[in-house]
Design a protein that fits this description.
Order of helices and strands: EEEHEEHEEEEEHEEHEEEE
Number of strands: 16
GO molecular function: hydrolase activity
CATH topology: Metallo-beta-lactamase, Chain A
Number of helices: 4
Number of domains: 1
Keywords: Hydrolase
Protein name: MBL fold metallo-hydrolase
Strand order of the largest sheet: 6-5-4-3-2-1-16
Structural class: alpha/beta
Largest sheet: 7 strands, mixed
CATH class: Alpha Beta
Shape: globular
Length: 251
């Protein structure tokens, strides 16, 4: 299968604009003061379809400003919890798909599979059909091991994470977005370390680093025999070209 490149633009927190072939995928766009998404959507000759995803209703993942894109959005794909919010009810419901964990939605351009979270909402695995490119966006799925929490709560967080991780074993994706949150201190990359040991991905982009910690993978980060590009964006509007091969990991 021929190789291709996807252009990824960072939109803060867990927000990203991804150009794959002639499809635009916008994930968790809650704040875009420089209007990267709006400008991309106005370039109508540059793409065939645009989809806006929101993994859950937290303010730093879902904001109603994306309602202004309803004329050009092919579909809004939201985590199920957004249906219950006042912000969610403002959207044209005939253009919204709400997904619970472990559901499938597709049209002629993309296939979307949902997974559970360890917070609220869902994670998304999106296949762009024309190119075959596969993208996983974890939403707030992570091992939220907070320093200072009781031993009981930390164990509950571990059990919830491992239960969902079991459902992801063997998953393939060209690109995965996954939280590496600096507020977790020494546990910052605990979740992503476990994640990359059970999935087969071609590239990793870290997200949800609210403190802009400057995290970089250490020498012992990668599993034995595995290596792939890792990018931790720092500033709104940072861009990266990511090589993809349609679901086949780039070694």
């Amino acid at each position: 299968m021929r190789k291709m490149k996807a252009e990824v633009t960072y939109l803060l927190n867990s927000g990203f604009l991804v150009r794959v072939g002639r499809t635009l995928l916008i994930f968790d766009d809650f704040e875009d003061e420089q209007d990267f998404v709006g400008r991309a959507l106005r370039e109508t000759a540059e793409y065939d379809a645009a989809y806006l995803f929101a993994s859950h209703a937290h303010f730093d993942h879902f904001d109603e400003h994306i309602l202004s894109y309803q004329e050009v959005a092919r579909r809004y794909v939201f985590g199920y919890d957004i249906r219950r919010t006042k912000r969610g009810r403002k959207f044209p419901q005939d253009k919204v798909t709400y997904m619970k964990p472990y559901e499938l939605w597709e049209d002629e351009n993309i296939k979307v599979e949902s997974y559970d979270s360890t917070d609220i909402g869902v994670a998304f695995r999106v296949t762009e059909k024309k190119t075959g490119a596969v993208i996983f966006h974890a939403g707030d799925f992570n091992w939220w091991d907070w320093t200072g929490e009781s031993a009981e709560n930390r164990k509950l967080a571990e059990n919830a994470f491992r239960k969902q991780l079991k459902r992801l074993e063997g998953m393939k994706a060209d690109l995965a977005f996954f939280p590496v949150d600096g507020r977790l201190g020494p546990m910052q990359d605990k979740g992503v370390r476990a994640f990359i040991r059970v999935v087969d991905i071609g590239a990793l982009i870290t997200m949800h680093d609210l403190e802009e910690s400057g995290w970089k993978p250490g020498a012992d980060f990668f599993p034995e025999g595995k290596h792939f590009p890792v990018w931790s964006p720092a500033a709104h509007g940072d861009k990266k070209l990511v090589e993809m091969t349609g679901g086949i990991t780039v070694k």
